[in-house]
TrEMBL record:
This is KEOPS complex Pcc1-like subunit. Belongs to the CTAG/PCC1 family. Pfam families: Pcc1 (PF09341).
Length: 79
């Protein structure tokens, strides 16, 4: 059986805030049957039983990380 794994390592000015924001998604993932998600100090690990589940979960997390970092950078650039 195919198994896939992706790791997202966050390092930068917004990493702590992003990890806090995503903690709920890691602790209570939408589908526990096909995907397992772990979080360490600055890394999110996604393991999946098939490529579609891995791709979908990875895309979601990458978008959430991007959106959170963009929002924070906009807020920090306000006068």
């Amino acid at each position: 059986m195919w198994r896939g794994r992706a790791e997202i390592e966050l390092d930068g000015p917004c990493s702590e805030a992003v990890l806090k924001a995503l903690k709920r998604e890691v602790l209570d993932p939408p589908s526990e049957r096909r995907v397992r998600i772990y979080m360490t100090d600055n890394k999110i690990t996604i393991e999946a039983e098939d490529l579609r589940a891995l791709r979908a979960t990875l895309n979601s997390f990458l978008y959430w990380i991007y959106a959170a970092c963009e929002s924070l950078s906009q807020l920090l650039s306000l006068p």
